[in-house]
TrEMBL record, chain A:
Keyword entries, A-Z: 2Fe-2S, 4Fe-4S, Iron, Iron-sulfur, Metal-binding, NAD, Oxidoreductase, Quinone, Translocase
Protein name: NADH-quinone oxidoreductase
Function of the protein: NDH-1 shuttles electrons from NADH, via FMN and iron-sulfur (Fe-S) centers, to quinones in the respiratory chain. Couples the redox reaction to proton translocation (for every two electrons transferred, four hydrogen ions are translocated across the cytoplasmic membrane), and thus conserves the redox energy in a proton gradient.
Pfam families: Fer2_4, Fer4_NDSU1, Fer4_Nqo3, Molybdopterin, NADH-G_4Fe-4S_3
Record-linked InterPro entries: 2Fe-2S_ferredoxin-like_sf, 2Fe-2S_ferredoxin-type, Mopterin_OxRdtase, Mopterin_OxRdtase_4Fe-4S_dom, NADH_UbQ_OxRdtase_75kDa_su_CS, NADH_UbQ_OxRdtase_ferredoxin, NADH_UbQ_OxRdtase_Gsu, NADH_UbQ_OxRdtase_Gsu_4Fe4S-bd
CC cofactor note: Binds 1 [2Fe-2S] cluster per subunit.
Protein's UniProt keywords contain Iron: yes
Domain 4Fe-4S His(Cys)3-ligated-type: 95-134
GO cellular component terms attached to this protein's record: membrane
Residue ranges of every copy of the 2Fe-2S ferredoxin-type domain listed in the record: 9-93
Parts forming coiled coils: none
EC number: 7.1.1.-
Family membership: Belongs to the complex I 75 kDa subunit family.
Species this chain originates from: Nocardioides currus
């Protein structure tokens, strides 16, 4: 395990004649790193428990610290330092060097040495260390062990057993870190191999990490296998765009094309792990429907246009349309969000802007404005240190994978996870968590009940609330109340990468950039001064749902929309109707989506790997990244908005935004700075109207699985094949009532106010009259095909 | 040589009618030691075992009483006794006959030992292939339960003990104590990283004593006759008696129970000499993992120190005797094939090394290769010995390096004749002038 340097007394050891002081319990192999000696190793991994299996890291111990030598060479990956210990590595000890060379020779006798066709060749620890710590020629003239190769461990992960040196890093990772021990060693001796149970493939959300930590080419992905050689690749650091966790990634590319993505190493955020979605889902930006040039609508058809023409047409259209609004989705970077926020205020003269392309509420907007903006109270490290972590409206394994891994690590060290959820998910089980069974809509009461001392929510606890809590009236207020009464720290965890940045950048009807409340005159003056304007609009804007309603009604006519999928919104049909009803629509999109196809002007925007930007994590931690590629026609949203703003200014509407590049926006954001004045109060509004539940109806619980039909996972069939199947879940009593003693797979027909869907059914420990379905794993998703947010459904058996 | 040199204690009742039954065992005074022990303070039993000088009979010779003393009695977790009855070493054949002939000796030892270390659960891990032994021990445990020697409040003493008889699944490695614990917990039989040692965190991460069958079976006699009686036998540092298992080209193979320090010359005399017309060529003192010895070592005292000084190990006192008809290369190849088959695969030197050793040896046995291959073999052994995770890898090298040390010329003879110069039939027990058995 990683040893955190402590302030306690250090231990003095001598390694290869060099004295070094390290914290107690440091392993010799790490202590040697401190003096620049790399002892060769395979099974050793700093984030996994020591195992001492490969024996590659043998060193000589002439003095164990007690004045006596250890007679046999010792595995330095399992041996902690002792005061006065003397270590001789391969650098100074012939015994250690011979031991290492011997082990290396053994490792290679059954290894196929097919480096020329192996994906790992060029970045292979076995290859590299065979060069540094092995002999040039083999003495083995016998017969190598062979296996048919490769075999599938999952649709994505392939195993070449001949190459495997059975270091057990992969099986240890799945067991210790991910908690998905789908793979295990089977057989023995030279036949020992990694295996799966016949009916249980390696379907872990984190399976790709095993490929990355495999020290040979035994594990490969169907995705990347045989695609390129490491020495042809250029690596650029990046930030994962699939959730709000900000996982560091490494993007490996060749000739303008991303070939693969790997986990970056950031101890403060994702350590060395990422989810399979962060690793494999990057083909969405290279699909056939990628927009490569601006388009404008002429005689009902979209036709290609030049950038100047498109900007001019967009500006003229918006100018003519009159009252206009801005809707953005979760993919925007903080810089782009800032540009949208400024564009709405400066060019469109409105606060009608909302990034929440999902069910939302006024209570949530208040919560974001009063509590979330500018808040950086909780970090990943705090999750590890907290005795209790409460989860409400958040299923980390699906919605925030990096948080899940951190909480699992924390739970193994004693942190108690308490989840307000409809049932005990597999993820909760892996965190050894405690379930507080919660009927959807009753989260506020459940949060209130956590004040009870038995839950241990004290000032050291952390409460994580997910964006889904917006759908449960009073829940965010209750969470804040719980935090205030107990002293526990609270953090809001949105699902998408751009969400937190959009809050900070002011993509809300109530909030200007830097957390400045629209309702606060001094905040408006502050913003206006910063932008060199007389004033900014003072009327509180419409939120997403209100913008949709106003477009349909005709109160709004123009719409600038970027990164919004109508099926994600609280009323997909209404959103579609609003886009059709709008007098003029400008769409900023990567691909020719349904929205883009309806727009009057379509402006192609750069995907994350073609621009610089910043995602802000749920913690409030900025995660800036630079573009992987520079492509002339691929521009960030902010550049396009600046182009439209310039043309609008020519028409006498608003003024130029004053920036054209990401760097300029960053400088402007830094100059503007955060709001240091008063924060608005959270006001619990009236409970919104809900469709009345029919008698016998089930409350609908739902969230998006990590791998589902999301458009940012398009283009990787192997990844999609590892997704969890769409099933409905009901409790045993409901199942028995529907199916009696029927044995075998069963399906249910769910019917809500928006449609009907048939899904296989499984039993879970749900409360009575609650059904769970995945939100986007069938059809167009729950909101389009089944029921409104907070709605209810009837459940019937299907044969 | 007089038969008086033998000290039958464990084997004393083997000739009794239906010696494995509770009735027969109790008729000979069985379970009296248990009753004595249950009326004694546990620490006094540990002291007695310490004073007796009993050393582990599974091969390593670690002082049994000291091992028991390592159990932290202030640890709130339960304590466990685990009996290692996974007797799988080629040549070793003492525990299986003991459990067949007198399983109650073991059960009584288990009760006393568990009481001493304050364990309320004990496990007997028996090699899975010997189903007849598993059944016999199961029946003995059942009889003990029925007689009130096991279960709640044993014989009214207030002491509770449950014994579980567990059958292994066919892995030599599970004789390694931590691999045994893994197997007992239902996991893959592979050795564990130490520390923590089993005495601190063994079975189910609780303090655990793991002892060989013969060690535990020796405890009742110590309680019955006293530590002084036990330590009066044997040599200065290797006290007591032990079962010596003679097998191979000897007239009367079998179990000879004698004080430690007896010599092979004495034992062969007791066994009626080598098979008629033949003479000893080489032998193992304690199973195939102990380096070979030759007739020049016939007078080495068979105790831990004596055999160690001769360059081998006392091991399990499995004396395999080979006469001059045996090809040492062939015998060593067979053993090496065994280690290759049984290597658990966890660590590189053992997993890959045994794979390679077999191929090199097989070539030599067929007369292929060159003298350089002998140096290669020795170098391979050097790279395995002391480099592997547990002692299995070390053991795999013993027959090879010791045989090359004593019989290098015989290896070379294979190369010069282009094959094995021996008639394999001549070494079999059905050879025309053969040993009986």
């Amino acid at each position: 395990m990683t040893t955190t340097p402590e302030k306690t007394a250090l231990v003095n050891v001598t390694i290869d004649g060099v004295q070094v002081s390290v914290p107690p319990n440091t392993l010799v192999i790490r202590a040697a790193e401190q003096i620049g000696v790399q002892v060769p190793r395979f099974c050793d991994h700093p984030l996994l428990a020591p195992v001492g299996a490969c024996r590659q890291c043998l060193v000589d111990i002439p003095d164990a610290g007690n004045g006596k030598p250890i007679p046999k060479p010792q595995a330095s990956c399992t041996l902690p330092v002792a005061e006065g210990m003397v270590v001789e590595t391969q650098v100074t000890s012939k015994v250690a060097d011979k031991a290492q060379q011997g082990v290396m020779e053994f490792l290679l006798i059954n290894h196929p040495l097919d480096c020329p066709v192996c994906d790992k060749g060029g970045e292979c620890p076995l290859q590299n260390q065979a060069m540094s710590n092995g002999r040039g020629e083999t003495r083995f003239e016998g017969v190598k062990r062979t296996f048919p190769k490769p075999i599938n461990l999952s649709p994505q992960v392939l195993l070449d057993r001949e190459r495997c040196i059975v270091c057990q890093r992969c099986t240890r990772f799945t067991d210790e870190i991910a908690g998905d021990p789908f793979i295990e060693m089977v057989e023995r001796g030279a036949q020992q191999q990694v295996g799966i149970a016949p009916d249980a493939p390696f379907l872990s959300y984190f399976s790709g990490n095993t490929i990355q930590i495999c020290p040979v080419g035994a594990l490969t992905s169907a995705e990347y296998r045989f695609r390129s050689r490491p020495f042809d690749l250029v690596s650029t650091a990046g930030v994962a765009e699939h959730d709000a966790c900000g996982a560091a990634i490494r993007v490996d590319h060749r000739r303008g094309k991303v070939m693969r993505r790997l986990a970056g190493n950031d101890p403060e955020v994702n350590e060395e792990w990422i989810s399979d979605k962060d690793r494999f889902a990057f083909h969405y930006a290279r699909q056939d429907d990628r927009i490569t040039h601006p388009m404008i609508r002429e005689d009902g058809e979209l036709r290609p246009a030049s950038w100047p023409e498109a900007f001019a047409v967009a500006a003229r259209g918006l100018h003519a349309a009159g009252p206009s609004a801005v809707l953005t989705g979760g993919r925007v970077t903080a810089e782009d969000a800032y540009a949208y926020a400024k564009f709405a205020r400066v060019s469109l003269g409105t606060n009608d802007i909302d990034f929440r392309a999902r069910p939302h509420s006024a209570e949530e907007a208040d919560f974001l404005a009063s509590f979330v903006a500018l808040n950086a109270d909780v970090s990943y490290a705090d999750l590890e240190a907290a005795p209790v972590v409460v989860l409400a409206g958040l299923e980390p394994e699906d919605e925030a994978a990096t948080i899940f891994l951190r909480l699992r690590k924390a739970s193994k060290r004693g942190t108690q996870v308490v989840a307000l959820a409809p049932y005990s998910t597999r993820g909760l089980g892996k965190m050894n968590g405690r379930l507080v069974p919660t009927v959807p809509g009753e989260e506020a009461a459940a949060l209130g009940s956590l004040k009870d001392a038995e839950f241990g929510v004290t000032k050291d606890a952390v409460i994580l609330v997910g964006e889904r809590l917006a759908q449960s009236h009073g829940a965010l207020t209750a969470a804040l109340e719980l935090a205030r009464t107990t002293g526990a720290r609270l953090a809001w965890v949105p699902r998408r990468a751009g969400d937190r940045g959009a809050v900070e950048a002011g993509c809300l009807p109530t909030l200007l950039p830097g957390g400045r409340p629209v309702a606060d005159a001094s905040a408006r003056i502050d913003a206006a001064t910063s932008w060199g304007l007389e004033s900014v609009p003072e009327k509180t804007g419409r939120d997403g749902d209100a913008i949709v309603a106003a477009l349909v009604k005709g109160d709004l006519s123009g719409l600038v929309i970027g990164g919004v999928d109508p099926d994600d919104t609280s009323d997909p049909a209404a959103t579609r109707a609003a886009i059709e009803a709008a007098g003029f629509v400008v769409s900023l999109e990567q691909r020719l989506t349904e929205v883009a196809a309806l727009a009057d002007v379509v402006l192609p925007v750069a995907p994350v790997d073609e621009k610089a930007g910043t995602f802000v994590t749920w913690e409030g931690r900025p995660r800036p990244f630079e573009g992987v590629f520079t492509k002339p026609g691929s521009l960030p949203d902010l550049r396009l908005l600046a182009g439209i703003a310039d043309e609008l200014a020519v028409l006498g509407q608003g003024s130029p935004l004053g920036f054209r590049t990401v760097a300029e926006v960053r400088a402007e954001m830094a100059a503007m700075g955060p709001w240091d004045g008063e924060r608005p109060e959270l006001v619990l509004g009236k409970e919104p109207k809900r469709p009345r539940a029919k008698a016998g109806a089930h409350a609908l619980a739902s969230w998006k699985l990590l791998l589902d039909r999301g458009s940012m996972q398009d283009g990787d069939a192997n990844l999609a094949a590892t997704a969890r199947p769409a099933v409905a879940r009901i409790n045993q009593a409901a199942y028995d009532a529907l199916f009696g003693l029927h044995d075998g797979p069963a399906s249910v027909v769910l019917t809500g106010d928006r449609g009907s869907v048939t899904l296989p059914v499984e039993v879970a420990d749900l409360p009575d009259a609650v059904v769970w379905v995945p939100a986007n794993s069938f059809g167009r998703g729950v909101l389009a095909d089944l029921a409104s947010p907070g709605g209810s459904v009837t459940v019937k058996g299907a044969k | 040589m007089s038969i008086d040199v033998l000290t039958p204690v464990l084997t004393d009742n083997w000739d009794q009618d239906r010696s494995w039954t509770l009735a027969a065992y109790e008729e000979q005074g069985g379970y009296a030691a248990m009753k004595t022990a249950l009326g004694t303070a546990p620490d006094d039993i540990i002291t007695a075992v310490k004073d007796s000088g009993l050393r582990g009979r599974g091969g390593a010779g670690f002082p049994t009483g000291m091992k028991w003393g390592f159990i932290p009695q202030d640890n709130p977790k339960p304590k466990y006794l685990v009996v290692n009855a996974d007797e799988s070493e080629p040549g070793t054949c003492k525990d299986i006959p003991l459990m067949m002939a007198s399983p109650h000796t073991l059960v009584e030892g288990v009760i006393i030992s568990s009481y001493a270390i304050r364990a309320n659960h004990a496990f007997i891990y028996i090699r899975g292939e010997v189903l007849h032994v598993v059944r016999r021990v199961q029946r003995a445990v059942q009889e003990a339960y029925l007689a009130g020697h096991l279960g709640k409040n044993i014989n009214g003493s207030g002491y509770d003990l449950d014994v579980v008889v567990h059958a292994g699944a066919g892995a030599y490695i599970c004789g390694e104590e931590t691999a045994l614990l893994e197997g007992l917990e239902g996991r893959r039989g592979q050795p564990r990283l130490r520390p923590p040692f089993p005495a601190v965190a063994g079975l189910y991460a609780s303090p655990t004593v793991i002892n060989n069958v013969e060690s535990i079976a020796s405890v009742p006699s110590i309680i019955r006759n006293g530590a002084g009686w036990f330590s009066s036998m044997g040599t200065e540092k290797s006290k007591g008696y032990g079962i010596f298992s003679l097998s191979g080209h000897v007239t009367r193979p079998g179990q000879y129970e004698a004080p430690l320090g007896i010599t092979l010359r004495q034992l062969i005399d007791l066994a009626g000499g080598m098979r008629e017309g033949h003479e000893l060529k080489f032998w193992t003192p304690g199973g195939s993992s102990t380096p070979l010895l030759t007739p020049e070592h016939l007078d080495v005292p068979l105790d831990f120190e004596g055999v160690g000084a001769a360059g081998s190990m006392l091991g399990t006192r499995a004396l395999q005797l080979f006469d001059e008809t045996t090809c040492v290369v062939r015998a060593v190849l067979r053993w090496t094939e065994f280690y290759k088959h049984e290597s658990c695969g966890k660590c590189t030197p053992c997993r890959e090394g045994t794979w390679w050793l077999v191929q090199t040896l097989a070539r030599l046995e067929k007369g292929q290769g060159s003298e350089d291959d002998l140096d290669l073999l020795l170098d391979q052994c050097e790279n395995i010995l002391g480099r592997s995770f547990c002692a299995l890898g070390d053991g795999a090298t013993s027959p090879i390096s010791s045989s090359i040390k004593y019989f290098r010329d015989e290896y070379l003879a294979h190369l010069t004749t282009g094959g094995c110069p021996f008639d394999p039939a001549a070494s079999t027990t059905f050879a025309t002038t053969g040993a009986s058995a």
